[in-house]
Amino acid sequence: MITVADVVADQTLNLQVVTGGDHLDREVTSAHVSELTSPGDWLRGGELLMTVGLLLPMNPADCQTYLAECARAGVSAIALGLGHGLPYQDCPEPLRIAAQRCEVPLLTVPDETPFIAITKWVFDVIARQEHHELQAAMEINKKLTAVATRSAPLPALLSAWSATSDTPCVVCDGAGQLIAATPGTPASVVERAVEAVGMARTAGTEWSMRGEFEVHTVGARVPSAYIVLGAAMDTRTRLPPPCRLRSPHSISNGVIWPAVPNTSAAHRFSHKCCGQGSGLSAPGTSPKESAWPASNTRWPLSTREMRIAPSR
Fold first, then answer.
1. Residue 80 pLDDT
2. Which of 76, 186, 257, 303 has the fewest beta carbons under 10 Å from its own?
3. How far apart are CA 219 and CA 198, in angstroms?
4. Which domains can be identified in the chain, with CATH numbers?
């Protein structure tokens, strides 16, 4: 993620903050140039909107209307181009006042910085971040695959997951009974996750958001298990986009591996969950300290078709 502050901090762009310094933490999702006086219909939120103010009347009423519409559309900031051959060499006072009232960061772009340089900078940084996140996701996948292809039990895989993500993962059987959870998950979180499974079972949904959790049902007709993930996941551990899965092997891959499918590894994960019992400990405790009894619950994934609904 990049913010308005990140763009302003780059010395090659030399942008200046006119007003809105308290809101520079807003995310910038794109950079866009528009001279429309009513751009709201063309905005999707998060834009660094650049203009030279060619068509905008610089009077209090029109500036207020313009900035209010931009604020409703969710722009991250307005950047006014200044310089020779342009309408303004300094930021007009009506525009500054309107931006301040609407709490929209207002920046100025110096003569030597073309708008295309800002656009290129924003999208280059976004592309580098996405590339880094993809590499991180592939590294996570490799680590989890290495665990899944060994003969380690389900708790080992959950431990590997917790080492790569802060997102809690709770596994329940088809009856909604707890099987395992990532190490260190607070007992209160596990309890709420199990309650979320209960709500999902009552509703009969294959995927659902239940408060702070995503609940994924394993099994198309008869649920054989439930996998619960904390909904506040970062980009590296986010579930993949909407997809239809044709194999019980893929469901584990879709839930546990954030990127780069690996069917054999997923098959191992399914085998661990389905065909082997494990003595499990309460999150944050050793097996000897656990207040939960060891479980020999089997988790048969017999269905040939299952679905993960959109996660957003």
1. 98
2. 186
3. 16
4. 2-124 (3.40.1390.20), 151-308 (no CATH)
